[in-house]
Design a protein that fits this description.
CATH superfamily of the largest domain in chain A: VC0802-like
Strand content of chain B: 15-25%
Oligomer: heterodimer
CATH class of the largest domain in chain B: Alpha Beta
Structural class of chain B: alpha/beta
Strand order of the largest sheet of chain B: 4-3-5-6-7-8-9-14-13
Shape of chain B: globular
CATH class of the largest domain in chain A: Alpha Beta
Radius of gyration of chain A: 16 Å
Largest sheet of chain B: 9 strands, mixed
Order of helices and strands of chain A: EHEEHEHEEHEH
């Protein structure tokens, strides 16, 4: 249930994200989800890709600061209030979210979640019969 | 404990006798052969006969790097060119290069000085030494090379740079000793990790690091990175090259080969010699060199001297690890700042040895100091708040040490220029 997300440190300068995408594109690695957290000087690009091990290696070889972070991907209905339900379960169990990002395709929306405790989150959401994506599913999205 | 030569352990009385005899000979030599010293001594009302023992050293004139430049290239040589067999030039860290020469005897002496250092580090003829100091005009490569051969070790003369090749030979040649600048050692280790090679997996057991100031924190980093003993070697081309002073296993300071290079520490303002344990500028008089015996050469390095006997048995005077040069020192809004002070803080916070550079500028007539630190392992985290915390932590630590507000900026790993020789740590944009 744990998904391997890559976090890449990049300076806030034009062309930096392009370079990351070029390295992954050249190696035929697909990006399934992406989010950027930024400050005025730098940002962290968070990526879910088709081959995280290979991507980590390639980016390291090119001297990027990159690390792998465990996240969870939860499916919610792509309807009003869909996300609210999931958040209520986490709040009830006192699980705080460090960050999250979402994408929706058709009837479903997928929420990528980074919390203080992955296993506790999985346990909580499974108990409430929420659908969690497997690593093998999401790498292919 | 292994010594290379008996002179390392003679009694202080014996040493004084050796130093006095050699100093008198050298003063006569330069008075007769070097017009610069002849003139300087006459100006001071000194004749060679006035120098009767090593205690009279303090009457002799100083020599500066500028004096070497003013007599470029061979003006201070005390031997005729037919006796000179080697010429090196300083790397010109701070300005135009200075030229130094060696006679056959000088080269032999140098080999012994280097062999003394290597022996103290525990290196023997059974070792394979990968010499990654630059070969050429720089004294590092050839200086270490000849000393290592003299010791009987097998030298791999790979010179500096070509990091992939360095790593390949470390693995395939089974090198047990590596010699290079400490910043380059870290770069090699970092590259190995990126290639998926464990830096502790080679046969390396000793590293001989010098040619730039480095801190105890950096030593610990290198030792844990490679699983080796990281030993300090001190030297400068004007005095000899590598082999002027060295760590012993006790690590209580660097032993100076003072039967050849007599050290003094002086007050930078009054130029008066200071007592043992007091901090000041290190000055050397070379009492055995033939081609370029300089009197009271001012190194610009800041250190302290200790004359008590070391547990290792050597009576060679000891000096503190050099952590700053008086001409490396930055004056930021009136505060004296040594790059090494900033380095120790970064190492403390990062728990790893990142590349960093200090950017000094003057904006609206006010000096500013920025520290750029590469966001590598140990510093990089997935959460913005942790990155901001790291920046703030370094800023706060620097403020409590220096009383200066320093802007700390995390940058991408490739931002800071890589050095395969001496690390470039300061960019000073202020108009001189």
């Amino acid at each position: 249930m744990i998904i391997e997300q890559l976090s890449v440190f990049i300076e806030n300068k034009s062309g930096r994200l392009y370079e990351v995408m070029q390295i992954l594109g050249d190696a035929s690695i697909n990006v399934s989800a992406l989010s950027i957290a930024d400050t005025s000087d730098y940002g962290i690009v968070r990526l879910i890709v088709s081959d995280p091990k290979e991507a980590l290696k390639l980016l390291k070889e090119q001297d990027f600061s990159v690390q792998s972070t465990p996240v969870i991907c939860c499916k919610v209905p792509n309807t009003p209030g869909g996300l609210k339900r999931m958040l209520a379960y986490l709040t009830d169990d006192n699980i705080s979210i460090e960050y999250m990002y979402a994408f929706s395709i058709g009837d479903d929306a997928s929420i990528v979640l980074r919390t203080e405790d992955c296993n506790k989150t999985i346990e909580c959401l499974s108990r409430h019969k929420m659908e969690l994506m497997k690593a093998s599913d999401i790498y292919q999205v | 404990m292994r010594y290379w030569q008996n002179e390392e352990i003679v009694s202080l009385d014996e040493k004084k006798a050796i130093q006095s005899e050699r100093l008198i000979k050298t003063v006569n030599r330069v008075y007769a052969n070097v017009p610069f010293y002849n003139k300087k001594m006459k100006e001071l009302g000194l004749e060679p006969g006035d120098i009767k023992s090593i205690d009279d050293l303090k009457y002799l004139p100083f020599t500066t790097k500028q004096d070497l430049r003013d007599h470029y290239p061979y003006g201070l040589f005390a031997a005729p060119m037919e006796e000179v067999v080697r010429i090196h030039a300083s790397s010109g860290t701070t300005g135009q290069p200075t030229v130094v020469g060696y006679t056959k005897n000088d080269i032999r002496m140098w080999e012994d000085m280097m062999a003394r250092c290597l022996s103290a580090y525990g290196v023997t003829k059974h070792d394979i030494i990968q010499n990654a100091y630059g070969y050429g005009l720089f004294t590092g490569g050839l200086g270490v090379h000849h000393g290592a051969e003299h010791l009987g070790a097998a030298v791999v003369p790979i010179s500096g740079g070509n990091t992939k090749k360095q790593i390949q030979l470390l693995q395939e040649f089974g090198s047990t000793v590596i010699t290079c600048t400490p910043s380059y050692a870290l770069y090699i280790g970092e590259t190995m990790k990126n290639m998926g090679i464990d830096p502790r997996s080679t046969n390396l057991r000793v590293g001989v690091f010098g040619a730039e100031p480095w801190t105890e924190e950096m030593r610990e980093q290198i030792e844990s990175l490679f699983g080796i003993d990281a030993m300090d070697i001190y030297g400068l081309s004007e005095v000899l090259g590598p082999g002027v002073a060295f760590d012993c296993q006790k690590r209580t300071g660097l032993h100076i080969n003072d039967d050849h290079f007599v050290p003094e520490v002086i007050d930078v303002d009054t130029l008066e010699p200071l007592a043992g344990g007091e901090s000041g500028e290190l000055v050397f008089t070379m009492i055995t060199k033939e081609a370029l015996p300089l009197l009271r050469y001012r190194t610009r390095d800041i250190t302290k001297l200790y004359t008590d006997k070391c547990e290792c048995g050597r009576t060679l005077v000891r000096m503190d690890k050099v952590t700053g040069r008086s001409d490396d020192m930055l004056i930021i809004r009136g505060v004296n700042v040594f790059p090494s002070q900033i380095e120790s803080i970064i190492l403390k916070v990062a728990e790893t040895a990142p590349h960093y550079v200090l950017i000094v500028d003057r904006i609206n007539n006010l000096d500013t100091l920025e520290v750029w630190v590469e966001a590598k392992e140990g510093l990089f985290s997935d959460a913005i708040k942790s990155l901001e915390k790291v920046e703030k932590h370094i800023t706060n630590e620097l403020f409590s040490l220096l009383g200066l507000h320093v802007k700390v900026k995390l940058v991408e790993p490739r931002t800071i220029e890589r050095s395969e020789g001496k690390a470039k740590r300061i960019i000073d944009k202020r108009k001189k």
